[in-house]
Design brief:
By secondary structure, this protein is mainly β. Helix content is about 5%, strand content about 30%. The protein is globular and about 45 Å long. Bound molecules: magnesium ion.
């Protein structure tokens, strides 16, 4: 087994790929020029709606606490790495859209992560402009560079399915849609295996992600095709240990909030 391989069978690995391969994605993509963002947006299959259970997870003894409700000392602005200035109030961290993306001071390679987010109860907007944020599993540069696990309100909000909450943005449709109502707290639990690069910068093994949204599996050891991109196909460029990033999306909807963010760095499997 390669160091970064996930402990799942090839059959389970193939399932998300088959979902995509059997959909009208490719026919749809051909309708648009490759410079058009719609060329990489698909609308089927639609993940089944699942009602999640209520319990969420608190940090175990060896967790690195990234946000515990007190301050955002573990975070800096992505743009210039000065201290983050999102809003910390009543134990929660709320996006400051004017300030932009934030990322961890520490860098990570492989890890287990827990994060909770809340879409505002009175959220407005539709499609991608409704509670959009994102968990970048590795930030590889300024702006939205990296690998985004989407955060969006899809309780009753349609968008392209490879861009809804639980998706690896524009790469992998989630296996289910266990969204909670706006105003309720949701949780992500993620296992991230970073890509490995050869000395010449070529890819030795791709990144993989397993993710649970509200305790429901939404990504099963998905093998990423590269960094997630709004326009164009994904591709890799070599990088080392990276920060974890949260997105301040530029849409006009009300900002979302976070709480209880922790991570457990993992050694590669031998
Ligand atoms: Mg996003």
């Amino acid at each position: 087994m390669k160091p970064s391989a996930c402990l799942f069978s090839r059959r389970t690995l193939l399932f998300p790929a088959l979902l995509i391969a059997s959909s009208p994605i490719f026919a749809q993509q051909q309708q648009y020029d490759s410079t058009d963002h719609r060329a990489t947006e698909v609308y089927s299959p639609v993940p089944p709606i699942v009602t999640p259970a209520e319990k969420v997870g608190n940090p175990p003894s060896d967790a690195v606490i990234l946000f515990d409700g007190k301050n955002e000392d573990q975070w800096v602005k992505t743009a210039d790495e000065t201290p983050a200035d999102w809003i910390v109030s009543d134990g929660i961290l709320t996006v400051n859209k004017k300030s932009g993306n934030i990322q961890t001071r520490q860098t990570f390679t492989n890890y287990q992560l827990h994060l909770e987010f809340r879409i505002p109860k009175d959220i407005t907007g539709s499609d991608q402009a409704r509670g959009n944020s994102g968990l970048f599993l590795a930030s590889t540069g300024k702006g939205d560079a990296g690998y985004e696990l989407q955060i969006l309100d899809n309780y009753n909000n349609k968008t392209y399915t490879n861009g809804q909450v639980g998706s690896v943005y524009k790469q992998s449709i989630p296996l289910a849609n266990p969204s909670r109502k706006p105003g309720e707290w949701s949780s992500y639990d993620v296992v991230w295996t970073a890509p490995v690069f050869n000395a010449d910068g070529s890819l030795a093994s791709p990144a993989r992600v397993t993710a649970f949204l509200n305790g429901v599996l939404v990504q099963n050891c998905f093998e990423l095709k590269g960094e997630t991109r709004y326009i164009g196909k994904p591709y890799y460029h070599a990088h080392g240990p990276s920060p974890i990033k949260l997105q301040a999306h530029g849409d006009k909807s009300e900002p979302i909030s976070f709480r209880n963010i922790w991570v457990r760095p993992l050694e590669p499997l031998q």
